[in-house]
Amino acid sequence: MFTNRSGNFSGIKVRVLMGLAFGCAALTMAKVQSQAQSTAVVASAVPRVVNFNGVLTQSAGKPSAATIGVTFLLYKEQTGGAPLWLETQNVRPDRTGHYAVMLGSTTDLPSDIFASGEARWLAVQPEGESEQARVSLVAVPYALKAADAETIGGLPPSAFVLAAPSVAPSSTASAPATPSATTPAAPPPVSGTGTANFVPLWLDGAGTLGNSVLFQTGSGTTAKIGVNTTTPATTLDVKGGETVRGILSLPATGVATATAGKNSQPASMIASAFNSGTSTAVNETFRWQAEPTGNNTATTGGSMNLLFGQGSAAPAETGFNIASNGLIHFAPGQTFPGTGAITGVTAGTDLTGGGSSGNVTLNLDTTKVPQLTGDNLFTGNQTFTGILKGITANFTSSDPNVSAQIAVSGIGLFGANNTPGIAVGAGVEGTAAGSLSSGVMGIQTGGGIGVLGTANTSLGGIGVEGSATTGTAILGVATDGSAASFENLSEVQPVAVIQNDTSNGPLMSVISGSNPPVDVLKVNPTQVTLGGIASPAVKLGVGTQTPAALLDVVAGTAGTHDPIAQFGSTGTADQNAIKTYNGTGNTEVFIVGKASGFVPGTAAGDGGLRVNPGQKIFFGDSSLARMSIDARGNVKVTGNLSKGGGSFKIDHPLDPLNKYLYHSFVESPDMMNVYNGNIVTDKKGQAVVTLPDYFEALNRDFRYQLTVIGQFAQAIVARKIAHNRFVIKTNRPSVEVSWQITGIRQDPYANVHRIPVEEEKPGAERGSYLHPDAYPVKDKNVRTVAEVPAQ
Questions:
Q1: For residue 631, what are the CA distances in angstroms to 248, 614, 615, 635, 636?
Q2: The pTM of the whole model exceeds 0.70
Q3: DSSP code of 789?
Q4: Lowest-confidence range among 242-251, 552-561, 699-708?
Q5: Does the N terminus or the C terminus of the chain have fewer Cβ atoms within 10 A?
Q6: In terms of DSSP bridges, do strands 588-593 and 576-581 run parallel, antiparallel, or are they unpaired?
């Protein structure tokens, strides 16, 4: 970081003297007409440069002697705003950090930049740093205004030479002939009377003056102008009406910063009320002003706010404002009276409560109106003309409280939980307390359904639920048809859910009809048993109806080995957990098992993949792994890796929770290594770069690249690589140089396994694509390389 600790200016005083000399020359030309007409006035050009001195220091406060680019900027304001002018120069300080530059030497200073007489501020910005604090220019640079002295009102001085007086005919004096000149008309005489402090008004075309309606008091920053009043209270005080034929703008009171926004200039309206308690008139001031919202955010806005102040108190926020979208925000306590008045609320039939003032509350009379979400007691018989849904029936004896029977096709008892958004509920629920009673019983004598439960909610409701402490919760018996049928119309919910709250009992048992019965399928909380403990064990076949093993998976077409996958067990010849055969012989192409039990194929390397539990995946046989993947995702390849593309993928450094960052691999037709770094040359402009000790043993065919940083300088490779070093030379001392060296691998592996740049496709792969999605393939018969049969 560099800082500019001080700045001094020296202006162009020569230009001021030239202006004075020009004034004297004009008086002389008025006396000598012939010389003025024959001699051209030559004005010296104004140098448009300004001297500036400063000091550059490093972040530690030490002087900086290195050449650095510095940008100089002129502003109209001390802070904020856009620059009026800027230029960048290469600055080389001395050993103490001092430097001197000529502003305008690379970019011309505009001729009118100092003409207005307004303040100008200079900012200094070293390369790679932010602007330093601005400094105010002293008066001398405003000498550039003297450029106006070359003309008078835009005309050359010769235009203002007076005409020579006329010579009488009897005169014997000899004088050179002069061209005629037109004498300008004399201005009209100023006359008339007026009153002090009134702005005068021309009363006629003869030059008579009088008073206007404009009256001024004070001067400078304290001046006040009154229109139709001689006692102006503010800078402009108008007595009477105003007509503005255009936009009346009330600008902001300043420029917003990151710490604070700026309100608009306010518009105040003042009323006067007489206070009988103090026997004085009190001002009642209402004020409208625009105020910023969301300052220092990406969603800035504004609102129009109403303020009020009484007497000498400053107006404060009332809470009433209008947002930028037109919405009105009212002050706390705002009420809106209607066209009528409610004097009281009386409770009607089946209601309680009421009143004539304050907050009025009405409630249902629960002795007359049942509650839908509570328990209700019905003392009489209830009749339902429609379908009875959502019933909870409690059986206290052999006769049910609720009985629904249907003698023909239809539904004996129907319950549905159709409440949207409710995840828990039951269509039909029945609880049985006795050993011979049923919570829910449905008997179908025709083609209908004994019990039907439907849960139409997508949140996981229950159509039919059965609960039993002993015995069977749900029992389905059928002599013809299905004892129980489950159908699910949802794509995301399970067809059936079987749950057991005990820790040891089975969740589900499928029992065979043998004598004694056998658990064909039994699901416990910690295990699934197929075939139970009975002998022979149940076999599961996939792709076959006659499984030959506990799990038998058969391919669509027969081969040497019918099973595509076979799970071994203790006592088999090979203790592999999974074996996959290639279909042409007793050769395993995929094996997962213990390391001690790994059995390679009949030929070396036939064991295609081996997985050691908790360790690595090896490609190759047990003695030589050509490729491995460990548990951390590290991949090791001993041969060449060919790919269509490559990149790294990491959590984005600036937003690791929400984004990824990708970078592509750098590709080259050669087996290229890249080395780079930065180095600074010494006082003689020389630097020695030391490379790794294996560099020349690993690489050949070197290429060099040098880039100078921070200044304009020349850099060359003075001596090529020898003994793992090379030398850089610059035409200046202390120059930072970024270097890059590339080399082609020449190690034994690279020499034997050199990667070919171009290669003809094998005959079987000709006419196919590695990446067909990258080509506009129109011929449907064109295959991908992956579809080509292995040779």
A1: 74, 7, 6, 10, 12
A2: no
A3: P
A4: 552-561
A5: C
A6: antiparallel
